[in-house]
Each structure stands twice: as structure tokens, then as C-alpha cells.
Amino acid sequence: MTPHQPTDPAAGTAEPLVEVRGLTVDFPMGEETVRAVDDLSFRLTAGQALGIVGESGSGKSTVAAALLGLHRGTGAHLTGTVRVGGIDVATAPVRELRRLRGGIAAMVFQDPLSSLDPYLPIGDQIAEVHRIHTPQVSRRDARQRAITVLDRVGIPDAARRSRSRPHEFSGGMRQRALIAMALACAPRVLVADEPTTALDVTVQAQILDLLHDLRAETGMGLVLVSHDLGVVASSVEDMLVMRGGRAVERGPVGTVLKFPRQPYTRELLAAVPRVEARRAPMAAASALSSASTGDVLLEAAEVRREFGRRKDRTVAVDGVSLTVARGETLGIVGESGSGKTTLGRMLVRLLEPSGGSVRYRGHELTGVHSDLQMVFQDPVSSLNPRRGIGESVADPLRAAGNLTDMEITRRARELLERVGLDPRWYHRYPHEFSGGQRQRVGIARALAPGPKLIVCDEPVSALDVSTQAQVLSLLAELQRDLGLALVLIAHDLAVVRQASDRVAVMRQGTVVEEGPADTVYDAPDNPYTKALLAAVPVLDPAEAALRREARRNGGGLLRASAG
Amino acid sequence: MTERFTGLRFAAKRLVGAVTVLLVLSVVLYALFYLVPGDPAQLACGERCNPAQVAQVRGQLGLDEPAYAQYLHFLQGVFAGRDYSTGTSLQHCAAPCLGLSHQNDQQVTALIVAGLPATTSLAIGALVVWLALGVGTGLLSALRRGGVTERVLTVLTLAGTGTPVFILGLLLLMAVCAYLRWLPFPSYVPLSQDPEQWAWNMLLPWLTLGLFESAKYARLTRSATLEVLAEDHIRTFRAYGVSERALVTRHALRGALPPVIALSALDLGQVMGGAMLTEQLFGLPGLGRLLVDSVRSVDLPVVVGVVLVIGTAVVIANAVADVLYALADRRVVLS
């Protein structure tokens, strides 16, 4: 498919497609340098698939970028060798490097919205890169090629949609378009950096299935970079676990996931929430006892919320009724756009319902109430970057206005300690903390007014799995000690199961199924719930293959839900 | 179908907005005029008029009427036309009539029409110069970022922004016409009369105004281009082997254009209303000179007329900019 390198006599059947030996990447940061990748080696023979797994900061994306020589000219310092398709990435002249990029190894990036040019039609963007690697092709033929690959990745009505711009595509379609762009260049290996992280679970399953099919069809290799062990388990044969820039463990996926040898891999695996695992009995016990008393704390009756007017009107929440009892956790799951965040905000009256009512202890809410608090999704943007974390926690206490300054400071320090932070960090700023620590600050702030109920909107979706587990156990602990009721909103089905007594499944603004967590997960009634559960990636490669088969045969609903 | 509908609605909205803006502008001008010290009748009549003569002139010009009545007559003239008696004869002024000059009884509309060719010539030519020079320099310094070229260009554009237009024009005049004698001192020749002479004579005004404005555009283009170059989609195309030059010209420039378009529209509108300094310096009989002269002699009808033309030009240029903006970035919805 791609001509061999005349400069390299070794390029032949013997040489692997990708060979990384002793790769070290240093980023100069002011005075010091940060080592992102440290003495990493791996190889990939043609047609193979390798998964690189690690938490944020492990250097996995840096490795992916190094495969295409994307560090050139950025100031990063590389040592060791990277050879892709017989080309030495470090020393190759620019012209050859450009031929490698896309032509031999094509990259699929994480965020499909920002990764496409917002100003140009998608078909033109694909045609442009196609023509770079096959210059003899005419403009018209390149456009035709773009339509062909868009059609191949499952974009309906590809000829017409090729003239659309990225903002007119859904997230899943954009990711398909990015894969189509890679396909257009007929590369020998696909480098996918978190290709499904921004997507809903059903769309993620479709994209992973697509990658699987394309590999089977074209025989191209795959380097899949992901933080999600489940994604890797279902898509590759070999895997590499990275931590702090180093390879911790490597081997066939089945072996590494079933019999991890390194403690870090074991920790990582243990932290992954399993959708099939029941809730830990200890956490559930206290909650059940109080939940069974049927003491209703918060009740939503037929709440609706519309946005926009007249023709632009969309119904975000369409008549949802639910109750939250004292001390229980209600999980709300749903894909993006299902209305779960809008519902959560209405429950604490940060948002006024267009219809229906929200009652707290039998009284209708007319505004925010100090007993009802909220923890937000993004711990970066939900804290004021110009104020110390202690000040952020103290704000609700000041607003209450019944404590002296000294008492407020003391209480804020107590709260920081309560969520596992050092009270001496009172005057530090948010950027000095990790994502998990920032989320702890968010929780401390929510605890400050002494609430009875906290709505947590995607509290752990921005965190690594090990941090996720810590934050979730903190929430469970607070619930047990303080008798809090929690509403846990998340798109991750396993996270919700791990932490909830009852679960409500939302789709297009309505609750399609509600019940005790175990009932909903083990014996789902609604076909949509079933489809959601079937799309969750599993850690067992054999099981993953079976599910893929099942999706291929009976995936009507999944495809329909893709929109 | 829906697209055409939004287009129509956009045009209608813009039209209503423009008329409102112009009406408000004219009211403000009339109000200001009554606050300005100095008697227009005295000024129109001349130094040696006795009070009786001044009163007569005042009656002829309609200045003895109350302010609101004068304004209503003005509006009547704009929409229906009106008649003026100039002592001995009767003059009909057809709609849109902006009144008669207090100085020489000429129709304001005629004065403006006479000034338009010179101003339009200057504005369009300068626009071409500043876009070509400004965007070109901006792109070049974005492409060569960190290099000597960029540093030289940065200094040049900084000097450009810092030099007042009359200094720049004087320097050009002295260099090109006085010392080097490449060109004769410019005097305006209408395009309809002799296109070649028109172009040669306009060259220096174009360069002066264009150079002055281009510094701003170079800086804007450079920063906007660099901003787009840092975005994720540029990384995508770099990872597919697109050359750095194509990244800038094909992808980054497109993202940098919207602010350039918006600013051009504003500047073009302003220059259409008369680049006073440039027109004055090169003796161009344009709207800028007309405005300066009429303000000096408190010639209300002319001032109002010229300012309304400026307002119209700004409003039209902005509407055009919005459409261009939406064409450049399809995520923008006209509303």
C-alpha cells in the first residue's frame, strides 16, 4: 500500500511498523524540565493493536504525539528513537515527516468538535488531507473520496452531509468524520488518542465497533491511548500500562487485566467501577434503614423546563416526578442532552421550573434554600481562580450572616479538614491543587451551610479512576456521618450503581425507568436501559467480543438512539 | 426557504434600525446646534449687516421659527421636498431635500453629491491598500514568528500606529513630490474625466491613509492568526502533513478574518464620512472638507446633511460586515 523506504534497507517484513526504543521526552518549564516520558520502549507489527493506558499525567498522549513527530518545534527535548514505517521520526526531513503524518500513521484526536476546522465543510477538510498524500488526484476526485470514506464510517446521506460544517454534526458524527479523515489517507497505523472520551456510552460503543471493523477490513494497525481500561479491553490485543512516564506493565490484554502482576495495575483495576457489581453492603445499610422509613425530604412533581421561545423552543425536562428520602442516594443516569443537569438544578432551585413544583419537607420551594446544596461537575471552572480555597468555602457562611469572622474562618478550616484537605491550605489558590482536591473543595463549600441534601452533578467525571473512587467514598462517608440525602447525576452507569440506593434513567427529558439500583441494573425493564447497559465497555476481552457480536446482530435501538 | 426568510427578516430589522439611528442623529444635531454660541443668521448675512438685514435673513432661512418647527420642516423636506424663497426667487428642493446652505443658498444634496466622488475614491483605494498591506504584513509576521522579519515588522507597525496621518502625508509629499519628483503635487482629477490622471493623483492620498490604517490591521491580523494557530484543529491538520504555510493561509487566516472584516466596516464607514485630515492635506474636494468648512461657518443644513451621510455609511458598512462575517463563519446566525 505504502512504498517502502529506499533509504532503509531493513524496511521489510522483519521491521515492525512502529518501533520505539528508549524514548524520553522532557518539557522545559521555566528553570526546570518536566519529564513526561521516561525511557519507554515498545513495538507494533503491521496490523496489530496496542493499547496505552494510564491516568492523566502518565505521558500517554505525549507518546502518541511523538509517533507523528508532533513535538518538533515545540521546545520539547526528545531522546531515544522512534521509527514509524521505516522512517526515523527524529531525523527525517520535513518533507518525509509530512508524508508520514497521515500517510503512514494517522491520528484521531480526542475532542472531535475542536479538532475540526469550524469554518470549512467537512468534505473539503477530508479532501484536503487526501490530496496531500495523493497529489495526482483532482479536486473533484478528492471530494468523491471524502464522500466515500464518510459513507464508510456510517454518516448517512454522505454526499449531502459532506458539505456540512462541524457544528452541524453531533458529537458521534464528528468523531466518525475524524476517523473518515484518517481513512482517506489509507494509513498503515491509526493512532487514536482518547477517541471516545467525549462521547456517550452508546456512541462510544458504535465508534469502537467501527474501529474494530475497519481494522478487520483494511488490516491497519492501531495504537489506542485511553484512560479507560474497558475501552482498551474491547479494542486491542496488547496493552501497556503507563505511570509517571514509565511503562509499568505490558502484555496481552486478557492476561494483564485478569492477572495483573504489578501493584499499580491492580490498584487501577480495583478502582474501576463495575457496572455488574452490587453496592458495597456497608454503605448501603445505613441508607436503607432510613430510606425504608419513607421520610420524604424532597419531592418533584411533574417538573418541566423549556428553553428558548416559539420555534427555537426545546423541552429539556418534560414532566418528571421523583422523591428523595432522608439519607438516601438517588442516582440519575442518562446520556448528554437527556435533561439530567437541568433537572438537578431545578431540584435545588438554581433554575426555575417552567411547570410543576418542587417541594422540600412538604413546602413548595420558591427560591434557593440553604438546606439544598450543589456540587458542580467541573472543579476547575466552578471555583474562583483569584480567591483562596478557604475563602470559597467561607462564602456560604458569610452569606448566612450569623457568625463572626473568626468563627467563619475556624468553621471553613474544619470543613477543609472534614473533606480530607489540610486546613493550613486555607489561603492557597485552586490552580495549586489536583482535580480531586479541587472537587473536595467543592464538596466542602456545599457542606458549609449544613445542608440536608446535596445534588452532585457529574462530581467525578473529570477525575481519574483512582481519584474517582476516593471522592465517591468521601461522599458515602459524609452521607453516613451527617445523614445527608444525595442526588448523584452521572453519565457513567457504573459510578451511579456503586453509589446509589435508587436509580432513575433519563432519556430526552423524561424518566424512562426508576427503581432500586439492583433491580434496574440486573433486570432492566425498559429497552433503552437495556441498550445503555449493553453498551458499557467490559474488562473481559472475550465478553467484549461477545457483546460486539450481539450489538451487530440486534443493535437496532442503539443505532436509532444515535440520532 | 427558512434561510431566505431569515435573510429578509435580517434586512428588515436592519432597515428599521438604520432609520431609527439616523432620526436620533438628526435630532441630536438640531439640539446641539441650538446650544452652540453664535447666530447663524448673523454669520450668513455677513459682518456688515445691520439688525434689520439680519432679521430679514433670519426670516428667509426660517430661523425665526421655534426649534421643533424647524426640525419638522427639515423632516418634511427629506420625505416630501419643500420650497424655499430666497428673497427674489422661489427655489424648489425635491425630496430627499436636506435644505439649503446658509452660506450660498446651494442645495445641500447637491453639495454632498459633488463631494462624494472624491471621498469614495479615497475610501475605496485606501481600503484596498490597508487590507493588502495590513493583512499581508500580519500574516507574514505570524508565519515568521520569533524571527528577525517579525521583529522588524513589529517595529514598523508600531511606528505606523504612532505616526499621525498628517505627518505621514507630509513626509510622503515631501519625499515623493519635492525631493524625488516622481509625481507632481497631487490635485484632484475626477475619475469620469481622466481615469489615468485620477489614479496618479489619488496615489499619495491612498498610500497615506492606507499606510496609516494598515498598521492597526497588521497587528490585528497577526494576533488573531496566532490565536487560531494555537487551536486544536490546527494540530489536526499538522498531524495530517499539511505544511505550515497552508496551515496559516488556508486554516488560520479564515479564523482571523472575522475581526478584520468587522473593523474594516467601521473604518470604511468613517472614511466615507470624510477623512478630514487626508482630504485637507491633499486638497481633495470631498465630504471631509465640506464638513470642516460648514462647521466653521455654523452652516447647520450642511453639517446635518454630511453627518447623516456619515451615519448612513457606517450603518450600511456594518450591515454588510455582518453578512460577510456570517459567510466567513457559518456558525454565526444573522438575527
Annotate the secondary structure layout:
The complex is a heterodimer of chains A (563) and B (335).
Chain A: E1 18-29, E2 32-44, E3 49-53, H1 60-67, E4 77-84, E5 87-88, H2 94-103, E6 105-108, H3 122-133, H4 139-152, H5 158-161, H6 171-184, E7 189-193, H7 201-218, E8 221-226, H8 229-233, E9 238-243, E10 246-252, H9 253-258, H10 263-271, H11 281-291, E11 296-307, E12 314-325, E13 329-333, H12 340-347, E14 355-360, E15 363-364, E16 372-375, H13 389-400, H14 405-418, H15 435-447, E17 453-457, H16 465-482, E18 485-490, H17 493-499, E19 502-507, E20 510-516, H18 517-522, H19 527-535, H20 541-554, H21 556-562
Parallel strand pairs in A: 3-8, 3-9, 6-7, 7-8, 13-18, 13-19, 16-17, 17-18
Antiparallel strand pairs in A: 1-2, 1-4, 4-5, 9-10, 11-12, 11-14, 14-15, 19-20
Chain B: H1 2-35, H2 40-45, H3 51-61, H4 67-80, E1 82-85, E2 90-93, H5 108-143, H6 148-162, H7 165-179, H8 195-229, H9 232-238, H10 244-272, H11 276-282, H12 287-296, H13 300-328
Antiparallel strand pairs in B: 1-2
Helix pairs in contact in B: 1-13, 5-6, 5-8, 5-10, 5-13, 6-8, 7-8, 7-11, 8-10, 10-13, 11-12, 12-13
